[in-house]
Amino acid sequence: MENAVAIRDIFSGAADGKKVLVRGWLQNKRSSGGIIFLLVRDGPGVIQCTIRKGVEQGFFDQFLSAKIESTVTLEGVVKPDPRAPGGREIQASSGKIDYPALEEFPIAKQAHGPEFLLDQRHLYVRDEKMRAILKIRAAILSAVRLWFDSHGYLEVQVPILTSAAVEGGSTLFEVKYFDEKAYLTQSWQLYAEALIASVGPIYTVAPSFRAEKSRTRRHLTEYWHIEAEAPWCDLDCIIKVEELMLSHVLEQLVKNCPVELGLFERNVEDLARVKPPFPRITYDEALEKIGPEKAGIKWGDDLGYEQEKLLTVHFDRPFFVTGYPKKTKAFYHKPDPARPDVTLSVDMLAPEGYGEITGGGQRIEEYDALVTRMREEGLDPKSYEWYLDLRKYGSVPHSGFGMGLERLVSWVCRLDHIRDAIAFPRLINRVYP
Ligand code: NSS
Protein backbone atom coordinates (compact mmCIF):
# COMPACT_ATOMS: atom_id res chain seq x y z
CA MET A 1 0.00 0.00 0.00
CA GLU A 2 1.40 3.40 -0.96
CA ASN A 3 2.28 5.72 1.89
CA ALA A 4 -0.27 8.45 2.40
CA VAL A 5 0.39 11.66 4.33
CA ALA A 6 -1.72 12.45 7.40
CA ILE A 7 -4.19 15.09 6.24
CA ARG A 8 -3.85 17.05 9.48
CA ASP A 9 -0.12 17.55 8.82
CA ILE A 10 -0.80 19.26 5.47
CA PHE A 11 -2.21 22.29 7.30
CA SER A 12 1.18 23.10 8.84
CA GLY A 13 2.19 24.47 5.42
CA ALA A 14 5.22 22.19 5.11
CA ALA A 15 3.74 20.46 2.06
CA ASP A 16 2.74 23.65 0.18
CA GLY A 17 3.63 23.35 -3.49
CA LYS A 18 4.52 19.68 -3.11
CA LYS A 19 2.80 16.59 -4.46
CA VAL A 20 1.12 14.45 -1.78
CA LEU A 21 -1.01 11.34 -1.69
CA VAL A 22 -3.97 11.22 0.69
CA ARG A 23 -6.38 8.47 1.54
CA GLY A 24 -9.75 8.70 3.20
CA TRP A 25 -13.52 8.77 3.08
CA LEU A 26 -15.35 11.03 0.67
CA GLN A 27 -17.19 13.21 3.14
CA ASN A 28 -18.78 15.60 0.70
CA LYS A 29 -18.82 16.38 -2.98
CA ARG A 30 -20.10 19.16 -5.22
CA SER A 31 -19.25 20.25 -8.71
CA SER A 32 -19.46 23.60 -10.45
CA GLY A 33 -18.06 24.99 -13.70
CA GLY A 34 -15.93 22.02 -14.58
CA ILE A 35 -14.45 21.58 -11.10
CA ILE A 36 -15.32 18.84 -8.62
CA PHE A 37 -14.85 19.84 -4.97
CA LEU A 38 -14.27 16.86 -2.69
CA LEU A 39 -13.90 16.81 1.07
CA VAL A 40 -11.69 13.89 2.07
CA ARG A 41 -11.49 12.72 5.70
CA ASP A 42 -8.80 10.36 6.96
CA GLY A 43 -10.04 10.40 10.57
CA PRO A 44 -8.08 13.13 12.33
CA GLY A 45 -8.16 15.50 9.35
CA VAL A 46 -10.37 16.71 6.50
CA ILE A 47 -9.11 18.48 3.37
CA GLN A 48 -10.65 19.89 0.20
CA CYS A 49 -9.42 18.27 -3.00
CA THR A 50 -10.32 19.64 -6.42
CA ILE A 51 -10.41 17.86 -9.75
CA ARG A 52 -10.52 20.08 -12.84
CA LYS A 53 -11.90 19.16 -16.22
CA GLY A 54 -8.90 18.69 -18.41
CA VAL A 55 -7.30 16.04 -16.20
CA GLU A 56 -7.62 12.55 -17.53
CA GLN A 57 -11.32 12.12 -18.50
CA GLY A 58 -11.81 8.72 -16.86
CA PHE A 59 -10.49 10.07 -13.54
CA PHE A 60 -12.77 13.12 -13.71
CA ASP A 61 -15.88 11.11 -14.61
CA GLN A 62 -15.24 8.49 -11.98
CA PHE A 63 -15.24 11.11 -9.21
CA LEU A 64 -18.15 13.02 -10.74
CA SER A 65 -20.35 10.00 -10.12
CA ALA A 66 -18.69 8.85 -6.86
CA LYS A 67 -21.02 8.28 -3.93
CA ILE A 68 -20.47 9.98 -0.56
CA GLU A 69 -18.53 7.87 2.00
CA SER A 70 -16.70 5.85 -0.62
CA THR A 71 -13.04 5.38 0.29
CA VAL A 72 -10.68 7.16 -2.08
CA THR A 73 -7.00 7.78 -2.81
CA LEU A 74 -6.01 11.09 -4.37
CA GLU A 75 -2.70 12.51 -5.46
CA GLY A 76 -1.94 16.13 -6.23
CA VAL A 77 -0.19 19.36 -5.35
CA VAL A 78 -0.99 21.26 -2.12
CA LYS A 79 -2.03 24.87 -2.77
CA PRO A 80 -2.80 27.51 -0.16
CA ASP A 81 -6.27 28.88 -0.93
CA PRO A 82 -8.16 31.12 1.47
CA ARG A 83 -11.49 29.89 0.06
CA ALA A 84 -10.78 26.29 1.07
CA PRO A 85 -11.69 25.10 4.60
CA GLY A 86 -8.49 25.41 6.65
CA GLY A 87 -6.87 27.53 3.91
CA ARG A 88 -5.38 24.71 1.81
CA GLU A 89 -6.49 22.35 -0.93
CA ILE A 90 -5.04 19.55 -3.00
CA GLN A 91 -5.32 19.99 -6.74
CA ALA A 92 -5.66 16.34 -7.62
CA SER A 93 -4.15 15.00 -10.83
CA SER A 94 -4.73 11.30 -10.25
CA GLY A 95 -6.48 8.95 -7.91
CA LYS A 96 -8.96 6.18 -7.56
CA ILE A 97 -12.02 5.06 -5.68
CA ASP A 98 -10.82 2.23 -3.47
CA TYR A 99 -14.12 0.95 -2.12
CA PRO A 100 -17.13 2.63 -3.72
CA ALA A 101 -20.13 3.12 -1.43
CA LEU A 102 -22.61 0.48 -2.58
CA GLU A 103 -25.64 2.65 -1.88
CA GLU A 104 -26.42 6.30 -1.20
CA PHE A 105 -25.29 7.25 2.32
CA PRO A 106 -28.48 7.17 4.41
CA ILE A 107 -27.59 10.23 6.45
CA ALA A 108 -28.19 13.32 4.38
CA LYS A 109 -27.38 16.91 5.16
CA GLN A 110 -30.96 17.76 6.06
CA ALA A 111 -32.18 17.18 9.60
CA HIS A 112 -33.17 13.68 10.62
CA GLY A 113 -35.17 12.68 13.69
CA PRO A 114 -33.28 11.39 16.76
CA GLU A 115 -34.58 7.81 16.48
CA PHE A 116 -33.42 7.54 12.86
CA LEU A 117 -29.97 8.81 13.81
CA LEU A 118 -29.82 6.35 16.71
CA ASP A 119 -30.71 3.49 14.35
CA GLN A 120 -27.93 4.68 12.02
CA ARG A 121 -25.45 5.29 14.84
CA HIS A 122 -22.81 3.03 13.28
CA LEU A 123 -22.72 5.53 10.38
CA TYR A 124 -23.66 8.69 12.29
CA VAL A 125 -20.44 8.39 14.34
CA ARG A 126 -18.74 9.85 11.22
CA ASP A 127 -20.60 13.13 11.73
CA GLU A 128 -18.44 16.16 12.53
CA LYS A 129 -19.99 16.75 15.95
CA MET A 130 -19.80 13.09 16.91
CA ARG A 131 -16.12 13.09 15.97
CA ALA A 132 -15.59 16.18 18.12
CA ILE A 133 -17.34 14.46 21.05
CA LEU A 134 -15.03 11.46 20.75
CA LYS A 135 -12.00 13.75 20.84
CA ILE A 136 -13.35 15.71 23.79
CA ARG A 137 -14.00 12.48 25.74
CA ALA A 138 -10.46 11.32 25.06
CA ALA A 139 -9.02 14.71 26.07
CA ILE A 140 -11.03 14.65 29.32
CA LEU A 141 -9.84 11.16 30.18
CA SER A 142 -6.21 11.91 29.48
CA ALA A 143 -6.43 15.08 31.65
CA VAL A 144 -8.14 13.08 34.42
CA ARG A 145 -5.34 10.52 34.35
CA LEU A 146 -2.68 13.22 34.27
CA TRP A 147 -4.15 14.87 37.36
CA PHE A 148 -4.56 11.70 39.40
CA ASP A 149 -1.22 10.23 38.35
CA SER A 150 0.59 13.39 39.42
CA HIS A 151 -1.25 13.62 42.76
CA GLY A 152 -0.35 10.24 44.18
CA TYR A 153 -3.41 8.27 42.99
CA LEU A 154 -2.87 4.83 41.49
CA GLU A 155 -5.13 3.68 38.64
CA VAL A 156 -6.71 0.30 39.49
CA GLN A 157 -9.42 -1.95 38.04
CA VAL A 158 -12.17 -3.88 39.81
CA PRO A 159 -14.81 -6.38 38.62
CA ILE A 160 -17.76 -5.48 36.44
CA LEU A 161 -19.58 -8.63 37.56
CA THR A 162 -20.48 -8.28 41.22
CA SER A 163 -22.46 -10.01 43.91
CA ALA A 164 -24.15 -7.09 45.69
CA ALA A 165 -25.73 -3.68 45.12
CA VAL A 166 -23.82 -0.48 45.83
CA GLU A 167 -26.41 2.15 44.94
CA GLY A 168 -29.64 0.36 45.77
CA GLY A 169 -31.46 -2.57 44.24
CA SER A 170 -33.89 -0.68 42.01
CA THR A 171 -31.33 0.01 39.27
CA LEU A 172 -29.48 -3.31 39.37
CA PHE A 173 -28.97 -5.33 36.20
CA GLU A 174 -29.13 -9.00 37.06
CA VAL A 175 -27.12 -11.52 35.04
CA LYS A 176 -27.12 -15.28 35.21
CA TYR A 177 -23.73 -16.35 36.49
CA PHE A 178 -23.69 -20.12 35.93
CA ASP A 179 -25.88 -21.37 38.79
CA GLU A 180 -25.74 -18.11 40.70
CA LYS A 181 -27.08 -14.60 40.34
CA ALA A 182 -24.67 -11.77 39.68
CA TYR A 183 -25.10 -8.08 38.88
CA LEU A 184 -23.46 -5.58 36.57
CA THR A 185 -21.61 -3.07 38.71
CA GLN A 186 -23.20 0.27 39.58
CA SER A 187 -19.96 1.64 41.02
CA TRP A 188 -16.50 0.37 41.94
CA GLN A 189 -16.89 1.74 45.42
CA LEU A 190 -16.99 -1.30 47.69
CA TYR A 191 -13.90 -2.75 46.01
CA ALA A 192 -12.22 0.65 46.13
CA GLU A 193 -12.66 0.71 49.90
CA ALA A 194 -10.79 -2.60 50.06
CA LEU A 195 -7.97 -1.42 47.81
CA ILE A 196 -7.18 1.81 49.68
CA ALA A 197 -5.88 -0.40 52.53
CA SER A 198 -3.58 -2.03 49.98
CA VAL A 199 -2.23 0.80 47.84
CA GLY A 200 -3.63 4.07 49.27
CA PRO A 201 -5.34 6.73 47.11
CA ILE A 202 -6.76 5.23 43.92
CA TYR A 203 -8.89 6.00 40.87
CA THR A 204 -10.49 4.15 37.99
CA VAL A 205 -12.19 4.80 34.65
CA ALA A 206 -14.72 2.06 33.97
CA PRO A 207 -18.25 1.39 32.79
CA SER A 208 -21.06 1.44 35.34
CA PHE A 209 -24.54 0.11 34.76
CA ARG A 210 -27.92 1.34 35.95
CA ALA A 211 -31.20 -0.28 34.99
CA GLU A 212 -32.82 3.16 34.86
CA LYS A 213 -36.48 2.59 34.14
CA SER A 214 -37.24 6.16 33.21
CA ARG A 215 -36.45 7.99 30.01
CA THR A 216 -34.62 11.19 30.81
CA ARG A 217 -32.12 13.33 29.01
CA ARG A 218 -29.41 12.55 31.55
CA HIS A 219 -29.60 8.79 32.14
CA LEU A 220 -27.82 6.04 30.25
CA THR A 221 -28.05 2.41 31.28
CA GLU A 222 -24.32 1.99 30.63
CA TYR A 223 -22.04 4.95 31.30
CA TRP A 224 -18.37 5.66 31.95
CA HIS A 225 -17.54 6.34 35.53
CA ILE A 226 -14.48 8.21 36.77
CA GLU A 227 -14.15 7.28 40.45
CA ALA A 228 -11.64 8.04 43.18
CA GLU A 229 -11.21 6.90 46.79
CA ALA A 230 -8.72 8.05 49.41
CA PRO A 231 -7.86 7.01 53.00
CA TRP A 232 -7.48 9.67 55.74
CA CYS A 233 -9.69 11.93 53.70
CA ASP A 234 -12.83 13.62 55.07
CA LEU A 235 -15.67 15.39 53.28
CA ASP A 236 -13.75 18.65 52.92
CA CYS A 237 -10.74 16.78 51.55
CA ILE A 238 -12.72 14.96 48.84
CA ILE A 239 -14.46 18.19 47.80
CA LYS A 240 -11.03 19.73 47.24
CA VAL A 241 -9.94 16.73 45.16
CA GLU A 242 -13.03 17.10 42.97
CA GLU A 243 -12.62 20.82 42.35
CA LEU A 244 -8.88 20.63 41.70
CA MET A 245 -9.28 17.69 39.34
CA LEU A 246 -12.18 19.20 37.39
CA SER A 247 -10.58 22.63 37.02
CA HIS A 248 -7.42 20.97 35.70
CA VAL A 249 -9.47 18.93 33.22
CA LEU A 250 -11.32 22.01 31.95
CA GLU A 251 -8.08 23.97 31.63
CA GLN A 252 -6.58 21.18 29.49
CA LEU A 253 -9.74 20.96 27.43
CA VAL A 254 -9.74 24.68 26.62
CA LYS A 255 -6.08 24.38 25.64
CA ASN A 256 -6.29 21.16 23.59
CA CYS A 257 -9.79 21.16 22.06
CA PRO A 258 -10.71 24.75 21.04
CA VAL A 259 -11.79 23.69 17.55
CA GLU A 260 -13.95 20.83 18.82
CA LEU A 261 -15.54 23.00 21.53
CA GLY A 262 -16.20 25.63 18.87
CA LEU A 263 -18.68 23.29 17.16
CA PHE A 264 -20.94 23.49 20.20
CA GLU A 265 -22.65 26.46 21.76
CA ARG A 266 -20.00 26.64 24.45
CA ASN A 267 -18.02 29.77 25.16
CA VAL A 268 -14.62 28.54 26.37
CA GLU A 269 -14.58 31.43 28.86
CA ASP A 270 -17.32 29.58 30.79
CA LEU A 271 -14.90 26.69 31.26
CA ALA A 272 -11.78 28.78 31.82
CA ARG A 273 -13.31 30.59 34.80
CA VAL A 274 -13.98 27.32 36.67
CA LYS A 275 -11.33 27.59 39.38
CA PRO A 276 -11.32 26.37 42.98
CA PRO A 277 -12.91 26.97 45.37
CA PHE A 278 -16.28 26.14 43.80
CA PRO A 279 -19.38 27.55 45.56
CA ARG A 280 -20.74 25.25 48.28
CA ILE A 281 -24.24 25.15 49.70
CA THR A 282 -25.99 22.70 51.99
CA TYR A 283 -29.07 20.68 51.08
CA ASP A 284 -31.06 22.95 53.44
CA GLU A 285 -29.85 26.06 51.63
CA ALA A 286 -30.61 24.40 48.30
CA LEU A 287 -34.22 23.86 49.38
CA GLU A 288 -34.49 27.50 50.42
CA LYS A 289 -33.15 28.67 47.07
CA ILE A 290 -35.49 26.61 44.95
CA GLY A 291 -38.56 27.05 47.17
CA PRO A 292 -39.81 23.59 48.11
CA GLU A 293 -43.43 24.37 47.15
CA LYS A 294 -42.36 25.45 43.68
CA ALA A 295 -40.19 22.37 43.29
CA GLY A 296 -42.87 19.99 44.56
CA ILE A 297 -40.73 18.43 47.30
CA LYS A 298 -40.37 18.55 51.08
CA TRP A 299 -37.37 18.27 53.39
CA GLY A 300 -35.99 14.77 53.21
CA ASP A 301 -36.77 14.20 49.53
CA ASP A 302 -33.96 13.78 47.04
CA LEU A 303 -33.28 16.52 44.53
CA GLY A 304 -34.38 15.24 41.13
CA TYR A 305 -33.69 16.73 37.75
CA GLU A 306 -36.53 19.30 38.01
CA GLN A 307 -35.34 20.58 41.40
CA GLU A 308 -31.69 20.69 40.33
CA LYS A 309 -32.65 22.66 37.24
CA LEU A 310 -34.28 25.33 39.41
CA LEU A 311 -31.18 25.42 41.60
CA THR A 312 -28.63 25.72 38.80
CA VAL A 313 -29.98 29.11 37.68
CA HIS A 314 -28.33 30.60 40.78
CA PHE A 315 -24.81 29.60 39.62
CA ASP A 316 -22.59 30.26 36.62
CA ARG A 317 -20.11 27.47 37.30
CA PRO A 318 -20.13 24.01 38.92
CA PHE A 319 -21.04 24.04 42.62
CA PHE A 320 -21.37 21.59 45.50
CA VAL A 321 -24.42 20.59 47.50
CA THR A 322 -23.50 18.93 50.82
CA GLY A 323 -25.42 17.31 53.67
CA TYR A 324 -28.17 15.34 51.95
CA PRO A 325 -30.71 13.69 54.24
CA LYS A 326 -29.87 10.12 55.24
CA LYS A 327 -32.83 8.61 53.43
CA THR A 328 -31.80 10.07 50.06
CA LYS A 329 -28.39 8.40 50.10
CA ALA A 330 -26.99 4.86 50.01
CA PHE A 331 -26.21 2.98 53.24
CA TYR A 332 -22.46 3.63 53.25
CA HIS A 333 -22.71 7.45 53.65
CA LYS A 334 -21.48 8.61 57.07
CA PRO A 335 -24.13 10.42 59.12
CA ASP A 336 -22.97 13.86 60.27
CA PRO A 337 -21.99 13.41 63.97
CA ALA A 338 -23.32 16.93 64.65
CA ARG A 339 -26.66 16.17 62.99
CA PRO A 340 -27.26 12.47 62.36
CA ASP A 341 -30.30 12.92 60.10
CA VAL A 342 -28.01 14.27 57.37
CA THR A 343 -24.97 12.66 55.79
CA LEU A 344 -21.43 13.83 55.03
CA SER A 345 -22.32 13.58 51.36
CA VAL A 346 -21.65 15.85 48.41
CA ASP A 347 -22.90 16.14 44.84
CA MET A 348 -21.34 18.46 42.29
CA LEU A 349 -23.90 20.15 40.04
CA ALA A 350 -23.20 21.75 36.69
CA PRO A 351 -24.90 25.09 35.86
CA GLU A 352 -27.22 25.92 32.94
CA GLY A 353 -29.81 23.37 33.98
CA TYR A 354 -27.50 20.34 33.77
CA GLY A 355 -27.38 19.39 37.46
CA GLU A 356 -25.58 16.48 39.11
CA ILE A 357 -22.27 15.42 37.59
CA THR A 358 -20.63 13.83 40.63
CA GLY A 359 -21.81 12.02 43.75
CA GLY A 360 -19.75 11.02 46.74
CA GLY A 361 -18.71 11.85 50.28
CA GLN A 362 -17.32 10.38 53.46
CA ARG A 363 -17.95 6.70 54.24
CA ILE A 364 -18.92 5.09 57.55
CA GLU A 365 -15.69 3.69 59.00
CA GLU A 366 -17.01 2.05 62.22
CA TYR A 367 -18.20 -1.56 62.05
CA ASP A 368 -21.26 -1.22 64.31
CA ALA A 369 -22.45 1.99 62.71
CA LEU A 370 -22.26 0.38 59.27
CA VAL A 371 -24.26 -2.69 60.34
CA THR A 372 -26.89 -0.41 61.88
CA ARG A 373 -27.25 1.59 58.66
CA MET A 374 -27.50 -1.60 56.59
CA ARG A 375 -30.29 -2.89 58.80
CA GLU A 376 -32.11 0.47 58.61
CA GLU A 377 -32.00 0.18 54.83
CA GLY A 378 -33.30 -3.40 54.93
CA LEU A 379 -30.00 -4.85 53.66
CA ASP A 380 -28.69 -8.18 54.87
CA PRO A 381 -25.20 -7.70 56.40
CA LYS A 382 -24.48 -11.30 55.27
CA SER A 383 -24.47 -10.13 51.64
CA TYR A 384 -21.79 -7.60 52.54
CA GLU A 385 -19.57 -9.81 54.69
CA TRP A 386 -16.29 -9.02 52.98
CA TYR A 387 -17.13 -5.31 52.90
CA LEU A 388 -17.77 -5.35 56.66
CA ASP A 389 -14.42 -7.10 57.18
CA LEU A 390 -12.75 -3.89 56.01
CA ARG A 391 -13.98 -2.24 59.23
CA LYS A 392 -12.48 -5.06 61.31
CA TYR A 393 -8.91 -4.82 60.08
CA GLY A 394 -7.54 -1.31 60.31
CA SER A 395 -10.43 0.97 59.50
CA VAL A 396 -9.74 4.56 58.54
CA PRO A 397 -11.75 7.72 57.81
CA HIS A 398 -12.08 7.75 54.04
CA SER A 399 -13.98 9.37 51.20
CA GLY A 400 -14.51 9.11 47.48
CA PHE A 401 -16.64 10.21 44.59
CA GLY A 402 -17.85 9.18 41.14
CA MET A 403 -18.18 11.43 38.10
CA GLY A 404 -20.25 10.42 35.10
CA LEU A 405 -18.13 11.11 32.02
CA GLU A 406 -21.18 11.60 29.79
CA ARG A 407 -22.78 13.98 32.30
CA LEU A 408 -19.62 16.08 32.17
CA VAL A 409 -19.46 15.95 28.35
CA SER A 410 -23.16 16.91 28.13
CA TRP A 411 -22.54 20.05 30.14
CA VAL A 412 -19.21 20.96 28.52
CA CYS A 413 -20.75 20.64 25.02
CA ARG A 414 -24.20 21.95 26.03
CA LEU A 415 -25.87 18.83 24.63
CA ASP A 416 -29.64 18.47 24.74
CA HIS A 417 -29.44 14.78 25.56
CA ILE A 418 -26.81 12.54 27.16
CA ARG A 419 -27.15 10.00 24.31
CA ASP A 420 -24.94 12.27 22.19
CA ALA A 421 -22.09 12.22 24.71
CA ILE A 422 -21.18 8.60 23.86
CA ALA A 423 -20.65 6.80 20.55
CA PHE A 424 -23.12 3.96 21.07
CA PRO A 425 -25.62 4.93 23.78
CA ARG A 426 -27.39 2.31 25.83
CA LEU A 427 -30.85 3.53 26.79
CA ILE A 428 -33.97 1.95 28.26
CA ASN A 429 -35.26 1.16 24.75
CA ARG A 430 -31.97 0.72 22.91
CA VAL A 431 -29.12 -1.80 22.75
CA TYR A 432 -28.73 -1.51 18.95
CA PRO A 433 -26.44 -0.91 17.13
O1 NSS B 1 -24.89 7.06 42.14
S1 NSS B 1 -23.89 8.09 42.19
O2 NSS B 1 -24.35 9.40 42.51
N1 NSS B 1 -22.75 7.71 43.21
C1 NSS B 1 -22.04 6.56 43.15
O3 NSS B 1 -22.20 5.68 42.34
C2 NSS B 1 -20.91 6.45 44.16
N2 NSS B 1 -20.78 5.06 44.57
C3 NSS B 1 -19.66 6.96 43.52
C4 NSS B 1 -18.49 6.96 44.45
O4 NSS B 1 -18.57 7.59 45.49
N3 NSS B 1 -17.45 6.25 44.10
O5 NSS B 1 -23.25 8.13 40.74
C5 NSS B 1 -22.11 8.93 40.52
C6 NSS B 1 -22.24 9.70 39.23
C7 NSS B 1 -23.43 10.65 39.18
O6 NSS B 1 -23.14 11.86 39.83
C8 NSS B 1 -23.60 10.82 37.68
O7 NSS B 1 -22.66 11.75 37.19
C9 NSS B 1 -23.24 9.46 37.16
O8 NSS B 1 -22.46 8.81 38.15
N4 NSS B 1 -24.44 8.65 36.88
C10 NSS B 1 -24.94 8.46 35.64
N5 NSS B 1 -24.55 8.91 34.44
C11 NSS B 1 -25.27 8.53 33.36
N6 NSS B 1 -26.34 7.72 33.42
C12 NSS B 1 -26.78 7.25 34.62
N7 NSS B 1 -27.83 6.43 34.66
C13 NSS B 1 -26.07 7.62 35.80
N8 NSS B 1 -26.20 7.33 37.11
C14 NSS B 1 -25.21 7.97 37.75
N- to C-terminal separation?
32 Å
E-strand count: 18
Strand order of the largest sheet: 6-10-11-18-17-16-13-12
Count of helical stretches:
15
Helix content bin: 25-40%
Ligand identities: 5'-O-[N-(L-asparaginyl)sulfamoyl]adenosine
CATH-level-4 superfamily name of the largest domain: Bira Bifunctional Protein, Domain 2
SS-based class: alpha+beta
The name of the CATH architecture of the largest domain is 2-Layer Sandwich
Low-confidence stretches: none
Question: What is the number of domains?
Answer: 2
| Shape annotation | elongated
Alpha-carbon Rg, integer: 26 Å
Q: What's the helix and strand layout?
A:
Blueprint: H1 7-10, E1 19-32, E2 35-41, E3 46-52, H2 57-64, E4 71-80, E5 88-99, H3 114-119, H4 121-124, H5 128-149, E6 154-155, E7 161-162, E8 173-177, E9 180-184, H6 189-199, E10 202-209, E11 222-231, H7 235-256, H8 258-262, H9 268-272, E12 280-282, H10 283-290, H11 292-295, H12 305-312, E13 319-322, E14 335-336, E15 339-343, E16 345-350, E17 355-362, H13 367-376, H14 385-389, E18 398-404, H15 405-412
Parallel strand pairs: 3-5, 6-10, 12-13
Antiparallel strand pairs: 1-2, 1-4, 2-3, 4-5, 7-9, 8-9, 10-11, 11-18, 13-16, 14-15, 16-17, 17-18
Residues 166-167, 186-187, 189, 210, 212, 219-220, 223, 225, 227, 356-360, 400-404, 406-407 line the site of 5'-O-[N-(L-asparaginyl)sulfamoyl]adenosine (NSS).
